[in-house]
Structure formats: structure tokens, C-alpha cells
Amino acid sequence: MDRRIVFILVALAVIIPMLLPVNLPVSVSEPTQKLHTYIDALPAESTIMIAFDYGPASLAELNPMAKALLRQCFDKNIHVIAITLFADATTLASTLIQEIAAEKGAVDGEDYVFLGFRPGATQVILGMGTEISSVFETDYNGTATGEIPIMKDITNYDQISLLIDLASGSSTESWITYANVQYNLQIAAGVTGVIISQMYPYLQTGQLVGLISGIMGAAEYEKLIDVPAKGMRWINIESFVHLLIVILVIIGNIIFFNQRRREE
Amino acid sequence: MNRQVPLVLCFVFGIVMIVTQFSPHSVSQGLYREVISWALIISPFALVLATVTLIQTHATRIQRRTEHWQYSYVVFAGLITMVVIGVPFGPQNQVFEWLYTNVQVPMDATMFSLLAFFIASAAYRAFRARTFEASLLLITALIVMMGNVPVGDLIWNTVLGWLPLEEGASKARQWILDNPNLSARRGIILGVSLGVISQSIRIILGIERSYLGGGD
Amino acid sequence: MEPFGIWVAALLTLCIYSFLYRDNPLYRFAEHLFVGISVGYGIVLSIHQGFIPFAWKPFWAAVTGESLSGLIKLIPIGIGLLFFARLSPRHTWLIRYPIAILIGFGAGIAIPNVLRANIFEQTRGTVEPFAAMHAGTLSGTGIFEAILMVVGVVCTLTYFFFSVEHRGPVKWLSKVGIAFLMIGFGSAFGNTVMGRVALLIQRADFLLGDWLHIIS
User: Fold this and answer.
1) Which of A73, A109, B67, B130 has the most crowded CB, counting CB atoms within 10 A?
2) What is the ipTM of this complex?
3) What is the pTM for the complete model shown?
């Protein structure tokens, strides 16, 4: 079969279900549930930090979970400090936070703040451990960190209840290695499909308090906060593409074994 | 001067970072903060390396008229446009944000989505149960793939419902990730970390010098 | 996104998808534009969010006498400026200074932290279930999983242990290690498929929804 036929089949497996109202039930995995429970148990006006450590290439998986997390935080009146270690994520993160803040009526500086980007991931993580304002003297809009209401009582990680790293690369390992070990900061992660498997050793040891796994995790989180959005919609469409790939693999193997039998 | 001073600097900064982490004394902690702030100050300058390399590569392509050299002008056009707008007016400038949102984001997202097609094609053409090990890889991949989507549970329960297995492909996927996958990943983490530590010691002691590059 | 922006994004998306048919000028144009725009974006962000707050502001404060304590910051700023030596072939060796500092800093900070995060903690995670087993709080399944984990970790590490020849029992341990690794890679493949397909769905959602308005 020409590879272009496979390409067409893949495209059809995406487009056709997109035009149909498919709504299969989503079951919630334990790592996602753990993170939701952890945030849910935080008292109002606690502060969490969200690191948008992904570029546009991963927004399909990580934007839905970022939105679901922000919705939960704003609903529970949990303060959010957002940063990024990825230059590419800066505008993306800024836009996304503003969108959800507008939806939930959250106020910049009082309910959330976006500090922006600083180069040198390890240095940034370590620097914030001693004093956040030594790394982010101002927020992304140029307001001095000390003048931002929600930053008034925040000096370093000691006042942060949880860091959630939305990651498409090795940033979660850096947060664990430097912020968790050095400063006892609690870490959770929302990651792309590519790196889900390598997060499990950290989940078992408790170095990660929870994990949202790719688009499936985003759908699970949307179910937990009871706000179905893109995650739920896309995971249903994803079902058909996975099914197609499984069928292609099985057909490929049947052909392979038939050929081998004939050759023998 | 060319090689000895960098080796000494590397040694001093490496040792300072190790020692200050273990000493709560105020002088030690002050030094620790100072070194971190030095590293923060130096990092943004590293951008020069990446930019100069990119410019040189494409300037050489234009100069030597290598294949598709004309497209190097497109690289420069994109780069210069962003810099000319972004540097004086800042990253929150409307035109700069428009270019990011409508040019960079869609292309970046689309470029990586191409892999969905290639991964499907490769799975059909090359994912074969040739050996025991390959079969393990294949079966695990199929279970995880089905466990990752809602339809997986429906199919699993219909096809394998008569077996005394846990309900749903999602549960099977979770068990794989929590157990054999975890063991393999932990083995890799331990191996890689031992490598990182030994390499770091070699760097600080000046045994590993490849970062200095060639020449004098 | 306003209509013109959506059209630009949609056309660039299609330019990149045209590669699925074969390599062509439209794809090459989009690919090169993407490189230029994204590097330009990175330069602007690094200047405004890195160079200005970390180097320019302390430098200006020191020069104008606003913050004399900031004078010490002139040293790392000077070291950072050495990256510009990359522009002069005769002085390129000077970039070894800032690189050596960053490498030394990275190596020094890594040794104790990697040791604690990845060696001690991961080892603790591997043996801890046995404490629960000893205390009698682990179920039958838990005991099986604890043993499976130790076997997996030890065998995977054996596979990566090249200091002894893989013969006899070592060979068998290493073979079991390969089996665990295959399951690990299989699960990674299954998860990667999910990730890549999600990217494709997002682009299709954009084209059919935002651009063509076929879906809501």
C-alpha cells in the first residue's frame, strides 16, 4: 500500500469523526485524580505556580490541560503565579491566561500574575528558590514584583503550595532535581504523550504528586472539573485514529507472516 | 590563557556550587546566591552563539549558491521582521504578537503534526512481530494505544470480557506504566544519572575538556 | 483571531501539509519562514526578558551611580560580552571563559542534586515496598509488583553494565532487562502516537472550525 493511501486514511479518521457527535465515556486515571484532589484540598488564597514549559508545537496537548487547571484554580480562589522557561511559550501563555481569567472574572495581580520568561532554566529555578524577585524583578507587563498584590507575601518557594510543570521536554526533571530536592517544593506535571512513560518513576516515589498525561489526561481533568472542552472532544476523535493504526499494524503483520510462511 | 584559565574557572565555579549547597553559613549562602546571579546574567548572552551560527549558515548558502539557496532570504526576511518590530517595541507589540499567533504558532504546530501521518505509515510498514522482543514492544504499544482512548475500554471489555482480567484497556495501560515501564525507566534514570555525576566530576577536575573545542 | 490572521494561518498550514504529497517550493518557503520567524521571536524574547533585566538594567544602574553595589555585576556582564568574540575568528577562543563558567556551574549544581533526586530517591522507591511487605501491609498483588519492580530495575541496569562480559547468568539477567526495556519503549511508542495524533486533530479542528466554519 502506498504511504499516501495511509495518509488519506489517517486524514479521514480525523475528519469524519470531527463531523459526527461522538461522546464516549472517559475514565479517570489515578495520577490525574491525585493532582485534582491535591489542588482541591488546598485552602482558598493558597498560591500555586504554573510553569508553561512548552512551545506551540505541543499546544494541542497542553493548552487544554492548562485551561482546565486555571479554571479549577480560579473557581477555588487559588492564586496563580505563571512563568515559563521556554521563550517560545511566552505569548502563548500570556494569551491563554488572559482568556481564562476573562472567562472566570479573575483579576491580574490579585488572582493571578504572569511573570514571563527568563533564560537559563537551572539558574532560574535555583534563583527563585532564594528569592523570586531576584529573577523576576517585574512581571511580564513591567509592574515591579513587589507592587503586585498577590506577590506581597511571596518571597520564594516556601510560600508556594505546588508547582505544576506543563512540559514538552526535560523541564519536569529539572524542577524535581533542583526545586524539589533543594527547596522541598511540591511538584506535579502535565506532560505531552512523548514523555509520559519517563514520569512514572517520579510518581511512585512521590517526587511528583500528580500527573496529567497528554490529551487523555486533559480530557480526564475536564471531566473532574465538570467543564467538557477541547480535551474531551479531541480524545473521542483520537479513538478512531488509534483504532485505524491498530488495524494497520495487524494487517501489516498478517501480510508479513503470510509472506514468511510462503518463503519457508 | 587560552585553555588553562577556562579550566580553572570551571573548577572554581563547580567546587563553589558543590560546597555552598552543604553549608548553611551566611557567607556560603551569600556566595551561592551570587554565583546563581552570575549564571543568570551570563546566560542571555549565549543567544549570540545560536544567532551567529544561523546567520553564518544561511549567508554561506547564499554566497555559495547551494541547492535551494534562495530560501535563505526567506529565513532572513522572517528573522529581520521579528527583530525590527520586537526589539524596539517589545514582545507585547500587537504586530509582533500577530506574527507569532498567525505565522509561527500554526507552522510550528503543523510541522509536528506531520509526524502523525508518518508514525501511522511507519507502524503499518515496519511494526512487525519478528522476534520475541519485537512482539513485546508491539503488544505493549497496542495495549497502551487502546488504553489511551475511550473506545479502548469498550473494545477490551467486548473482546476480552470473558477473561479474568481487570476491566478496560485503560486499566491494563495503567498497570503497564506503573510496573514494567516504571522498572525499565528507573533503570535508565539510574544509569543516566550515574553517567551525569561521573561526567560532572570529570568536567570539574578538567579531565573532560571537549567543551573547550579544538585549537589552542 | 481575526479573519485575515486565520487565512494566513490556514494557508501556511496547508503549505506545510503539502509536504505529505512531496517536497515542494510551498513547503520549503513555509519551512524557512518558520525558522526565521521563530529565531527572531527567540532573539526578541531573550533581549527583553533576559538581556535587559539581567544585564542592561544593572549595568545602567551601576553606570549612573543609582546602585553602586551593582558594580560587581559588571564582571559577569563583561564575561557574558565575551560571547561576542564568536564574531572574530582571531578571538573566538575567548568564548571559552563564559562557557567554562556555565559548564562548571552546571556540573557543580548537578552532582549533589542529581545524586539525591535520581539515585537516592529512586533507590528508596525501589526498596520501600519491601518495608511495607515486612510490616505485613502489602497485598498479594503488591508483593508481586514489588518483586517485579526490583527484578526489572536490576535486570535493566545489568543490560547497561558493560564492565563484565554478558555471559552465563549475566547474559540471562541482561535478556530479562531487554524485555523490560521493550515494554518501556512500547509504552512510550503508544503514548507518542497519542501525542502526535492530538497535534493533527488540533490542526484539523482549526481548519474545519476557525477557517472553514464546517464544525462549531
Assistant:
1) A73
2) 0.95
3) 0.95
